[in-house]
Amino acid sequence: xxxxxxxxxxxxxxxxxxxxxxxxxxxxxxxxxxxxxxxxxxxxxxxxxxxxxxxxxxxxxxxxxxxxxxxxxxxxxxxxxxxxxxxxxxxxxxxxxxxxxxxxxxxxxxxxxxxxxxxxxxxxxxxxxxxxxxxxxxxxxxxxxxxxxxxxxxxxxxxxxxxxxxxxxxxxxxxxxxxxxxxxxxxxxxxxxxxxx
Length: 197
Known about the structure:
Blueprint: H1 5-32, H2 60-101, H3 108-132, E1 135-137, E2 140-143, H4 153-174, H5 178-196
Antiparallel strand pairs: 1-2
Helix pairs in contact: 2-3, 2-4, 3-4, 4-5
């Protein structure tokens, strides 16, 4: 028996109805299981395991930088304290020995030269205190300060301080002519710095 057009249409309609019923049944089952999208399963990284979260430890480079900063801060504080104590001691000894014990030979020129040639070192000392003293707030390091062991201008400033200390001791023992040694040494330092730069 040859199927007619009506028979063919009835068969197609029946197949579509059956497929629609199966699809609705699957959707209902998936909704009850908590997944409204049966063809898009949830990504997983292990049975019953929640998604992994990554925690980043501090960078070794950052840690090393922090350690170096703390070392510079401690070194600066120690150097500044030593600088102030040494400077105060040398100036007090000079005043006691040269200006008080030998007051008979002390003239206005002696005071003038002492102030004039000591002033650069004292100003440098105050400047180093300002730029290199570490600052702490609530126990945390807020400012490291300029490294007192740096090269270049920092070296020259230390030279001025050390030469001044040596000349103070020399003037107290040998006389006022040692101040001219201070002048010659500092001029030579300036010339050498200019040539190097």
